[in-house]
């Protein structure tokens, strides 16, 4: 069987590793051969998405399209980009292959869940671009943005530095704020967030964009998902 799944990673490396682990953990496989076959194109040198959005620094588009070209030349027909903020430029990515849109997939999961007031954890660029918020508002869903947006960014940066314990402690008061402000769930709309937030950290249901994209990859590869106890 040919490999038809490609992943563009490196945004950031720790989040990419978690995403690959997710694919392995969520695949219902009895042996090595039943797992997903994919090609990873990992480029940590892809320009910073936050700087590109707020400060007009170099756009990530050319670097990501270079990755798409590489994967397409190697026979890949379905590509995932596990970085929510990068999806701000989704319309500029080359469309010669099936490019999975993790934002659209996550919004659909939110709509299907029935939650009406999800807390929203994301980078400042994802929030300000209204990448998720616009679609949610059109569906009558009021996402709750934490006042401590800068604290979320601090936690994300600590994950990128590999300081996981500090990142987890930094994010904790933001989660408490969302719990206290009436959130009925939490959207993890940044791939660094699942590295430091899990079901043991809050009683609120977690809507995990990272997991949702990993599940789509597994199904796109013709594999089975493990049963999931939400």
Automatic annotation (TrEMBL):
Return any one Pfam family short name: Asp_Glu_race
Question: Keywords of this protein's UniProt record, alphabetized?
Answer: Isomerase
Among the GO molecular function terms of this UniProt record, one is: amino-acid racemase activity
> Its family?
Belongs to the aspartate/glutamate racemases family.
Q: Which NCBIfam families does this UniProt record tie to the protein? A: asp_race (TIGR00035)
What name does this protein carry? Aspartate/glutamate racemase family protein
Q: In which organism is this protein found?
A: Ferroplasma acidiphilum
């Amino acid at each position: 069987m040919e490999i038809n799944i490609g992943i563009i990673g490196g945004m950031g490396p720790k989040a990419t590793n978690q995403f690959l682990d997710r694919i392995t953990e969520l695949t219902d496989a009895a042996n090595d051969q039943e797992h997903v076959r994919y090609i990873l194109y990992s480029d940590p040198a892809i320009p910073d998405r936050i700087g590109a959005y707020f400060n007009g620094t170099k756009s990530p588009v050319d670097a990501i399209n270079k990755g798409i070209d590489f994967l397409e030349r190697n026979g890949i027909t379905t590509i995932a980009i596990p970085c929510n903020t990068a999806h701000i430029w989704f319309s500029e990515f080359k469309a010669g292959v099936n490019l999975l849109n993790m934002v659209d997939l996550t919004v659909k999961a939110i709509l299907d869940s029935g939650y009406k007031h999800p807390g929203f954890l994301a980078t400042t660029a994802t929030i300000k671009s209204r990448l998720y918020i616009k679609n949610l508002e059109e569906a009558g869903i009021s996402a709750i943005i934490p006042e401590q947006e800068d604290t979320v960014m601090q936690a994300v940066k600590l994950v990128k530095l590999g300081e996981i314990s500090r990142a987890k402690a930094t994010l904790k008061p933001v989660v408490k704020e969302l719990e206290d402000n009436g959130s009925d769930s939490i959207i993890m709309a940044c791939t660094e967030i699942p590295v430091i937030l899990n079901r043991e950290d809050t009683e609120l249901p977690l809507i995990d964009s990272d997991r949702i994209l990993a599940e789509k990859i597994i199904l796109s590869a013709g594999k089975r998902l493990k049963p999931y106890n939400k």
